[in-house]
Amino acid sequence: MRNWKVAAVAATVLAMVFAAGCGGKTETKTESKDIKIGGNFEMTGGVAQYGQSAANGVKLAFKEVNAAGGVLGKQINFVIADNKSEPAEAANATTKLISQDKVVAIVGPAASGNVLASIPVASEHKIPLLTPTGTNPKVTVENGKVKDYAFRVCFIDPFQGTIMANFASNDLKAKTAAIYVDSSSDYSKALAQVFEQYFTKNGGKIVAKEAFLQKDQDFKSALTKIKATNPEVVYIPAYYEEVSKIIKQARELGLSVPMLGSDGWDSPKLVEIAGAAALTNTFFTNHYSSQDKDPRVAKFVESYKKEYGQEPDAFAVLGYDGGLMMIDAIKRANSTEPVKIKEALAQIKNLQVVTGILSMDANHDPIKSAVIIEMKEGKQTFRTKVNP
């Protein structure tokens, strides 16, 4: 009888151990059902328009892949942290996503300054970071050294600065130009430097250089000085909030020459603040045009409008492309290990995304095209595409 009881107890213990083992495995499967990707974006603050658009693009890409069955049999869980449009907060958001949310990769931030503040944290923890829109060259390469865990979706500032200088010289036939730069922005200063370099190389002359600061409201004094030099074009590489006011005030002063700019102009608020009439005869470099005849562009625009009720800007399409690049990397890595995802991002080749076919170069920058947008009656119109 005692032997029977002992055997029964032993059997019960074994059953409990086995059940516990099975329970542990089931729990592990539950925990690994999804793939956590972080989103570090400017959801509030000075450039919230950019961060929100980019985040919406990423979300749409992940929503579509999840609806199609996910990646590696798992759903992508996109966890967004708000960096409040501030570098210090961007670093904090990166720490939170890695330490608390346990993400395996990060998409964002949107603004170069916030990206630069986030990369050291991501690199220290060996988590790949892919910015959709950080165009500053230092995002991926600094002091001649490629940053192992940093990648981007967009072209870099020297590329768009060169394109606009060539457009001013070759298409607009301008021989003189004025530059109005945001001296509080590395983005703006870098673009101005490249534009000046290539415009003068083309035989042009810079007749005026003026500066402003972010959040300035009155630009008429500097614009009056610029007007007095009779430039044939004015280059304003800055963000839409100040640019829209600058253009409005320039037109009020009778400065009617072409105004040229960069991808930072791309926002519906540009027209809202400047007014459609003031924007006549303005041009800026951008990452895509919704008027591109490529059917992939039309499909994306339709899907984005259906999801968010508005037309996507360049930040939205680059966010979407960033989502596609991350999906592609995880698939090719056949793993959710951050190091393997990083390696797969570096090896992207001939990937079809909305903005074209791209390959990653040795500096972790994509080789891709750019477009020049002309504003007509308050609407963006496709002027030309420039290949690298």
UniProtKB/TrEMBL annotation:
Residue intervals of the Leucine-binding protein domain: 35-378
Name recorded for this polypeptide: Ethanolamine utilization protein EutJ
Stated family: Belongs to the leucine-binding protein family.
Source species, domain of life: Bacteria
Leader sequence segment: 1-19
Key words of the record: Amino-acid transport, Signal, Transport
InterPro entries with a match to the protein in the record: BCAA_transport (IPR051010), Leu-bd (IPR028081), Leu_Ile_Val-bd (IPR000709), Peripla_BP_I (IPR028082)
Gene Ontology process terms (BP): amino acid transport
Keyword check for Transport: yes
Pfam families: Peripla_BP_6
Xref: PANTHER family: LEUCINE-SPECIFIC-BINDING PROTEIN, PERIPLASMIC BINDING PROTEIN OF ABC TRANSPORTER FOR NATURAL AMINO ACIDS
